[in-house]
Amino acid sequence: MAVLVEPFRLALFRVIVVIAEQQAISIMEGETAVAVSAKMAGSAEMMRTEAAIGEIAAAHIRTTAEVAAVTREAATAMASAAVS
Q: SS3 sequence, the chain?
């Protein structure tokens, strides 16, 4: 009787090992998916930050252009007053 039980126990042990390996692989795949998702979220956040920096730079350029236009208008007005 013990002779018949031993092969069954070995087969059961092998099945348990295979299931454990599959679970470990599933867990690793899940962890990889979470890591990739986190990296993508980080990339998206970095892109939003870069877009915000670009908007700030564009606003600065617009302000500089507006100041230059006012300065040009003032210089033109002073030149006109000097000629008159």
A: CHHHHHHHHHHHHHHHHHHHHHHHHHHHHHHHHHHHHHHHHHHHHHHHHHHHHHHHHHHHHHHHHHHHHHHHHHHHHHHHHHHC
